[in-house]
Each structure stands twice: as C-alpha cells, then as structure tokens.
Amino acid sequence: NNPARKRFGFGNKAVLVNIDPQKAYTRTDLFATAYETDPRQLDYINSLAAKFRQLGWPVVWTHVAYMDSANDNKATVMKFDGNNWVVVGAAGFSPDTASEISLVLGSNNIPHVLYEYSGPSDDSLIAVMRFDGNNWVTVGASPFTSGEAYDSALAIDGNGAPHVCFIDVAN
C-alpha cells in the first residue's frame, strides 16, 4: 500500500476504451466471433464518446486504422479531435488494398501503419507507412518482405524506429 499512489481499479466512473471497428470484429465471413456492423457505427461511437465526456468520464483512444471500403479497401486512419473523428492525411492512402492493419503511435504521437496486401502472384506481402505531418510515406522498401508473409505485428522503439515481426512462409 502506497498512500501517495492514486487509487486504481473499480471506482465511480465507467471508462470507454478503444472502440475498434477493425475487420477481425466485423467480418462475419472471415471470423467466427465477428458481428454484423451497422453502416453508421462511427456515428454511434462519436455519440457514445460525447455522452461519456458530458458525464466527465474518461474516453481512452486517439486513433483508429481500418480497411476503408469507400476507398477501394485501402488503409485509412482517423483520430478523435475532441469532438469528432477526422481523417489523418488522405483517406485510402495506401497504394494497395490493405488488410490485417496495425496502428502504432510513435514518438510525438506520429502514427505508423503496418498492413498486408496481395502481391503479383497473390502472395501476402507487408508494408509500413507513417504520417509525416502532411502525407503518408512508405517506411523502407515496400514490400520489405521477399516472399509471402502473414500474422504481422508492429512496434515502435524509444528512438522512433519501427520493428516488425511476421511469419515468413519460405523460412
């Protein structure tokens, strides 16, 4: 027991944590635990967040990344500006159809996105992009995998360098 430490655990307020409209939760044809989504899901998320804030309850998230069906299934990132979700850079910024999207905020809250896409022979390839304040730019080579890869994950170290792990089918 540390009396100087702020109390943690169940208290008097609910907290809204990271509402994530990613396809792992919404693609019923791909994932057994997914559910059918409403086309107005972002409107509902905004409404719920506004009600939490009116009550003075915490809302914990800043950015979301998703495969944007309105933009040829390319990657789009949105952030919450305190009132609404707004697009970061351009909607559908990835040059390729994006799937299995991961979003990580680096130093100074710079968003980085990892995504998988189909190569010329339908192999799953991986690319990473970051937002430079104006545009989404590719980090390193794209793809940086030489063959089929999947089950990827992205992390940013304390120096801002991205690190990717994935299953390399050939090795």
What does it look like?
This protein is mostly beta strands. The chain has helices at 23-26, 41-54; strands at residues 16-17, 59-60, 63-68, 74-80, 85-87, 99-105, 111-118, 124-131, 136-138, 149-156, 162-168. It is globular. The protein starts with 15 loop residues before the first strand and ends with a strand. The mean pLDDT is 80.
The number of helices is 2
End-to-end Cα distance, whole Å, is 50 Å
List how many beta strands DSSP finds: 11
Give the overall average pLDDT. Answer: 80
Report the β-strand fraction as a percent range.
35-45%
Fill in the keyword field for this structure.
171 residues, mainly beta, 4-stranded antiparallel β-sheet, 3-stranded antiparallel β-sheet, 36% strand
